[in-house]
Design goal:
Blueprint: H1 10-13, H2 15-28, H3 35-49, H4 52-64, H5 69-74, H6 86-99, H7 110-119, H8 122-144
Length: 154
């Protein structure tokens, strides 16, 4: 069964949205959080949400940024692998909590927040939260309109 888009990506129909998205991207990526960490949390949230377009682009962007295939292959099981730093683990825990809001009464428990705050300054935490919200925004746009991952040959 092939996935077909229901409509073009809404940002192509509402060009002013692209300007806002670009500003969010720029803000999140200018606060000092390592680019690899931002790529990992984007990819993990997209995996959770089942956004094929974002999983595809996230993995490709992470590889372009120097991420190893070993770490990318293990990302869904990051707790059980030795491949991630403590700071990355804190960011990934925050990503999962911020993405799975309805899974528990306290969606982002203090222990998750406090561990992230141990590794990231307040400005960096703001960037992580903003990037996670932006990622979840992308995931919801793509899932709602059934934007497929592009086909890559070769």
């Amino acid at each position: 069964m092939s996935v077909q888009a229901r409509m073009q990506n809404p940002t192509t129909l509402l060009p002013d949205a692209v300007k806002a998205i670009n500003l969010l991207y720029k803000a999140a990526h200018s606060a000092g959080v390592p680019g690899s960490t931002l790529e990992l949390v984007h990819l993990r949230a997209s995996q959770i949400n089942g956004c094929s377009a974002c999983v595809d682009s996230g993995a490709r962007n992470a590889r372009k940024a120097g991420e190893t295939e070993e770490r990318l292959f293990a990302l869904a099981a990051w707790r059980e692998t030795p491949y991630f730093t403590d700071a990355e683990r804190a960011a990934l825990a925050l990503a999962e909590s911020a993405t799975r809001l309805a899974d528990r009464a306290d969606p982002v428990p203090d222990e998750v927040w406090n561990e992230a705050a141990r590794h990231f300054e307040e400005k960096e935490l703001a960037a992580l939260v903003l990037w996670l919200a932006t990622t979840n925004f992308f995931n919801r746009l793509n899932a709602t309109t059934r934007q497929p991952a592009p086909q890559h040959w070769g």
